[in-house]
Amino acid sequence: MPHAYDADLKMFIDGERLGAASRSTHRVVNPATGETLGELPLATPQDLDHALATAARGYRLWRARSATERGNVLAGAARLLRERIERIARIATLEEGKTLPEAKGEVMMAAALFDFYAGEVHRIYGRVLVRPAGTLSRVVKEPVGPVAAFCPWNFPVGNPARKLGAAIGAGCSIIIKPPEEAPGSALEVLNCLLDAGLPKEVASCVFGVPDTVSRHLLASPIIRKVSFTGSVPVGKHLMKLAAEGAKRTTMELGGHGPVLIFDDADLDKALDLLVPHKFRNSGQVCVSPTRFHVQEGVYERFAKEFAARAARIKVGDGMDAGNQMGPMANPRRPDAIEAFVGNAVQAGARVAAGGERGGGSSDKGFFFRPTVLTDVPLTARVMNEEPFGPIALMRPFKTFDDAVEQANRLPYGLAAYCFTENGRRALLLGDAVESGMIGINTTMIGGADSPFGGVKDSGHGSEDGPEGIEACLVIKAIHQA
């Protein structure tokens, strides 16, 4: 029996819900079945100009509101997210494919972030400088201005919440472009903010051909800040567009998470944490552990047990209870993973688990089995390009220096994981590994109060934590005699 999908697929600009009418549309598909869920309207140039004009008015209105008013909206939206969790999670699973428990966890993450920002708005502090009597010099923080935000499909609730929460908390207006693959989830997050009292002018939501929308919005002097989560090539393209207008940017780009397993690690604990973390959301996670570098003494045991656990993961429709991994989000992803596997095997890797399409009850879904490749040569494409899928790559290493060299070998630097029971080694790893986030004997590297972001080609700036709001603020020094 098909599951009900009742998302209202309309853009939102200045209080209006804009449907297909004479606009072009995009077909929203259930990745577990290939069936059409609905038709999404795509913005015209006139729609984008309307959104820009609205953002300019919304910024003037919202920046004048008190911290208490902004915090109340965010706290109210957090409460509504929790109340509406069943509906929002169902929409996210039908659109993106992740399991229903994962989708519910994502809604709770978004609510926690809104709650954190609701408090953080009261801690946007400046300072007074020491000056001679009769003069006053102060440093204040102000909202940067209207924000253009672009979200990917892999976290269709969490990513929009990050963009909206930071901008709204800082006092900015925002135009958000969620992914066309999973639009209803983002609209539900926006609805919670609006129902909590957010003025209609403050946030607009548009859809469209990504390059067309980004070029139009970033060409406008109204936009003063760009926030993007997605691939490295697209992020660099947007940075070039932003540079033309000297716009500030926050870029959370791709990753290729290294995992360093030392021979003194608690292997059972490492496996308990890493296997589900690797295959959550079908591996379509920017911080997913991907390159497993395992010390020679425990390599065979770790790889064998990891593969055995991966092979037992139940794959199927994310709406069905008992399934542990859903489909990939679109038909492009299984094609890409299949090509990576073929190239790696040709280069000399061995398939220890998976390596093929399959899962679910429909041959129309975009399923790929949890895959483990061992002895993967560094020349294989998948060891150098972000796979973004359910594939774990195993290689042995000898020494500490070898492990660190491999962890830092690529231009990515988003998330890394290290497992060792040696305290001195753990301390050294924290310093030596080039990554924006490092988990040592844990995979929990995110939280509402913790900065989320990368280094090197994985981007710059942070979301979440105080740093998330700081990214939407500018500093002004005021000197008075």
Structure notes:
- Helix 9 packs across helix 10 (296-311).
- With 481 residues, the chain is α/β, with parallel strands linked by helices.
- It is built from 14 helices and 20 strands.
- Strand 7 (147-150), helix 5 and strand 8 (174-177) form a beta-alpha-beta unit.
- The chain has helices at 45-62, 67-83, 85-96, 100-120, 158-170, 183-195, 210-218, 232-244, 267-279, 296-311, 332-347, 400-407, 423-432, 465-470, and strands at 11-13, 16-18, 25-29, 36-41, 127-129, 136-143, 147-150, 174-177, 203-205, 225-229, 248-252, 257-261, 289-295, 350-353, 371-374, 391-397, 415-419, 437-440, 459-460, 473-480.
- The chain folds into two domains: 11-253 and 457-480, 3-Layer(aba) Sandwich (Aldehyde Dehydrogenase, Chain A, domain 1), CATH 3.40.605; 257-448, Aldehyde Dehydrogenase, Chain A, domain 2 (3-Layer(aba) Sandwich).
